Amino acid sequence: METRRDIFQAIADPTRRAIIGLIAITAMTPGDLAAHFNTSRQAISKHIKVLVECEVVKQEVSGREIFYQLDINKMKEVDEWLEKYRCLWEKRFDQLENVLEKLKTKKK
Amino acid sequence: METRRDIFQAIADPTRRAIIGLIAITAMTPGDLAAHFNTSRQAISKHIKVLVECEVVKQEVSGREIFYQLDINKMKEVDEWLEKYRCLWEKRFDQLENVLEKLKTKKK
DNA sequence: TATATTTGCAACCAAATAGTAGCAAGTAAG
DNA sequence: CTTACTTGCTACTATTTGGTTGCAAATATA
Predict the structure, then answer these.
(1) pLDDT single digits (tens) A25-36
(2) What domains lie within chain B, and their CATH numbers?
(3) Using a CB cutoff of 8 Å and minimum separation of 24, what contacts does B89-93 make?
(4) What's the pLDDT tens digit per position in B7-45?
(5) What is the DSSP string of B24-67?
(6) Is the CB of B79 under 7 A from strand D?
(7) B8 CB and strand D closer than 7 A
(8) Which of B8, B81, B82 has the CB atom closest to A12's CB atom?
(9) Helix (H/G/I), strand (E/B), else coil: A1
(10) What is the pLDDT of residues A48-63, one digit of tens each?
(11) In angstroms, what separates the C-alpha of A5 from chain B's closest C-alpha?
(12) Which residue has the higher pLDDT, A102 or B10?
């Protein structure tokens, strides 16, 4: 088993997905984030550490506080992976489009 | 920590993503799948078990063989989750569109 | 019937993960 | 300067995960 540290690992945990949802809107400190969960500040800090290692978050130091915000670029990687499969569930729609296209050409 | 068994857990492992990639095209047996990897058949079977529990794959029994194929519906869940964030990386593009739109109106 | 193939399941092991507690460093406020 | 606050880091523990081995059940083939 190798150590995996990528965006797919980052979004596997529901707490981390919740953190992503929060810092997508505004930058937040670990203390602020911890207040939104039932778990301890240290636990949230460890989740943040994973997100930082996966480059899912950007950090900005302001005095003794550290603000974390979502880095959207890594989210694109998931989108690009999904792209390969998207055609599979859009197939029916594409087929419908083909039908419409054929109807158009018939009119000519 | 609770036991998580959802699509995000399913796609966290690179081997499982590879399996998904293979069974998206054609249905395959565990034996066929194992031939594509360096790991044992049992290891692949355990990955398949996870995918089944997450309802990412459909199975069809044919004699003593079991064919597994991708169930695309669960993949949509990831796409729906991403949908909330997609606007964030399309923002710049939208702004560019706005610029182009303004140029158009200026011409009038 | 006897044998080989395909598969799932249970037991077990090593590594990773999630969480807690304590501590040190840096910063703000008295 | 002293005290309080915010944070990251290092053990330490419990749980989960990925993998291997062995075995039994079901199916195909001789």
Answers:
(1) 999 999 999 999
(2) 7-107 (1.10.10.10)
(3) B89/A72, B89/A73, B89/A75, B89/A76
(4) 999 999 999 999 999 999 999 999 999 999 999 999 999
(5) TTS-B-HHHHHTTSSS-HHHHHHHHHHHHHTT-EEEEEETTEEE
(6) no
(7) no
(8) B8
(9) coil
(10) 999 999 999 999 999 9
(11) 10
(12) B10
Residues 45-74 on B with a CB inside 8 Å of A are 70, 72-73
Q: What is the mean pLDDT of chain A?
A: 86
Write down which residues 45-104 in A have CB closer than 7 A to strand D: 45, 48-49, 59, 64-66
Taking the CA of residue B42 and the C1' sugar atom of nucleotide C14, their distance in angstroms comes to 17
Which among B58, B87, B84, B38 is positioned nearest to A11, based on CA atoms? Answer: B84
Any long-range contacts for A30-39 (C-beta under 8 Å, 24+ apart)? A30/A66, A30/A68, A31/A65, A33/A68, A39/A15
